[in-house]
Amino acid sequence: xxxxxxxxxxxxxxxxxxxxxxxxxxxxxxxxxxxxxxxxxxxxxxxxxxxxxxxxxxxxxxxxxxxxxxxxxxxxxxxxxxxxxxxxxxxxxxxxxxxxxxxxxxxxxxxxxxxxxxxxxxxxxxxxxxxxxxxxxxxxxxxxxxxxxxxxxxxxxxxxxxxxxxxxxxxxxxxxxxxxxxxxxxxxxxxxxxxxxxxxxxxxxxxxxxxxxxxxxxxxxxxxxxxxxxxxxxxxxxxxxxxxxxxxxxxxxxxxxxxxxxxxxxxxxxxxxxxxxxxxxxxxxxxxxxxxxxxxxxxxxxxxxxxxxxxxxxxxxxxxxxxxxxxxxxxxxxxxxxxxxxxxxxxxxxxxxxxxxxxxxxxxxxxxxxxxxxxxxxxxxxxxxxxxxxxxxxxxxxxxx
Length: 401
Description:
- The protein has two domains: 61-259, Type I PLP-dependent aspartate aminotransferase-like (Major domain) (Aspartate Aminotransferase, domain 2); 262-398, Aspartate Aminotransferase, domain 1, CATH 3.90.1150.10.
- It contains 15 helices and eleven strands.
- The chain has helices at 9-15, 43-50, 65-77, 89-99, 116-128, 141-151, 171-180, 193-196, 230-243, 249-259, 262-280, 300-306, 325-334, 364-370, 386-398, and strands at residues 82-86, 107-111, 132-136, 155-159, 184-188, 206-210, 224-228, 286-290, 315-320, 350-352, 376-380.
- The strands form two sheets. A seven-stranded mixed β-sheet has the order 1-7-6-5-4-2-3, with helices on both faces. Strands 8-9-11-10 form a four-stranded antiparallel β-sheet, covered by helices on one side.
- Helix 3 (65-77) packs parallel to helix 10 (249-259) and helix 6 packs parallel to helix 7.
- The longest helix is centred in the last third of the chain and has 19 residues, at 262-280.
- It starts with 8 loop residues before the first helix and ends with a helix.
- The model has no long low-confidence stretch (mean pLDDT 95).
């Protein structure tokens, strides 16, 4: 502001130090831009930004420089043309479904054992909007193709590694199949992360992440992101602008900071999960262990082929023999290091009871259909020493008789 020194004390208190001209240097780390609006040198400049003939910022609900930095980083890691950030993973998956064309009268084919909130989004909200949703076993390619053909679906939605049953989807085959039937392939890549797998390289159209999980990795930010083409990004941007699911600057900064250590964290988490899974298979109180890194896993060969040879993910599920909900809870309460808390992909080891948490909104019949019994637990290994995790599991198992 010109002649600010001539203004009153009250006015100077409001405006002093603000809108400083750009400096001739660049910060090493991306700064946080906690501003709602922006001032331009002329109204013509602002008008050009509104018209999209000139790049620039307008309003925080649209985006922020911090969010754009996070988007650029994710796009690079996913080998995508662009990415769009959201305030949560569910906001991201909802927007991706809408951007791909989910409307009243259209059909969506989705994996039966998707994340519980995704299941409810599909069978509840989208179904109420008039979208026909058909759930299939995504590992059964014949069943998937039959559903695509029968429903004339415009979208096929799968998870690279499903939550919590850890089924591995054959993304290259599913992409070819979806495109042959005129459908877009949407892949939730949260469990694998781009460290292990990049679906766009194998034909996917949209790659979705709950960035709350492995991408940020520290359990301190809620965020989502979709990596895709530039054209799809424009659709996602416009949807986000209207529905208000924008990732705030501070959360974008936390997610970007966490992203920098993704390879280091994932390496340790994959190693820990493999070690824990192998140990659990030797325990008589454990009825079954589900982990793609075990030769007993139905898609072990496929996972070995697809997942970059860096590991099989940091999540495993296991079932306590003969356990009901009360017994599963007692085991979780006996743990001292592994935390009975929601989320996954953290630096901390986290354990949940899917039937009462992520898949709580499903009826008992739906959980039985999906394959989630009361004795099933999902463990997301952190970056602690694997031997300490094993010791904690061992002492907790000893306490349940």
